[in-house]
Amino acid sequence: MTVINQEIYADDYSAYNNLGGRKTPPKVKARFIDLATLERDKNESIAKIDKQALIAKSAIEAEYRNAIARLASDLKKAQTDIAKADKLSKKKPSVSRAESMSKVRSQKITSQSLLKRLEEFEGCCAYCYEHLGKNKQVDHVMPISKLGADVLENIVYACQSCNCSKGDRDPIKWYRSQPFWSEVRESKLLSVTGRLDSLTVE
């Protein structure tokens, strides 16, 4: 598009006026047309930009509304999950769990049962298998401090060294970290005492 020099246009328009308006010189007429075209193009460009801005604004507002809706949905789901978790946490132990706990608590510790337990490990420490003489101590496999039950299934004989070393640590993790660990003896320990989760009280 031809760029119009407004000063030249003004001079041409003055010359046109000096002619008394009898006839528009071709050069001046062409410049009138160019300016009108320029003004029209400018207005069209402004309208196009306004339209694009309106479309972009609408898109942003729609995305914002969708994001708010998604957040509201996620929040509602989280609240539902929390409510379910709270409800489950308040449930009483299942019948099977209660029966299991009753069975564990019903087995009393007697001198005869302790002697039998010592014989099950051939008179040796349940962990390192060192022969026990007078150096024997009663050990709760699952420590009392970890809610271990004071029942026969949770009791073995151990040497003083192993009993002190294990302390209130997780029995299996501690045992597997020892140089004398044996998969065979670990299996025997669990077969005699039972699963660790059955050795605790609620």
Count of distinct strands: 2
Alpha-carbon distance between the termini?
89 Å
Class per helix and strand makeup: mainly alpha
Number of helices: 7
Helix-strand pattern, N to C?
Answer: HHHHEEHHH
Radius of gyration: 46 Å
Q: How much β-strand is present in the residues? A: under 5%
How would you state the average pLDDT, rounded? 75
Range of helix content:
55-70%
Described by strand count, sense and barrel closure, the largest sheet is: 2 strands, antiparallel
Strand order of the largest sheet: 1-2
Q: Give the overall silhouette.
A: rod-shaped
Which blocks of ≥5 consecutive residues have pLDDT under 50? 1-12, 93-106
Question: In words, what does this structure look like?
Answer:
By secondary structure, the protein is mainly alpha-helical. It contains 7 helices and 2 strands. It has helices at 6-18, 26-89, 95-106, 111-120, 160-166, 171-176, 183-193, and strands spanning 137-140, 155-158. Strands 1-2 form a two-stranded antiparallel sheet. Helix 1 (6-18) crosses helix 2 (26-89). It is rod-shaped, with a radius of gyration of 46 Å. The two termini are 89 Å apart. The model is unreliable at 1-12 and 93-106 (pLDDT under 50).
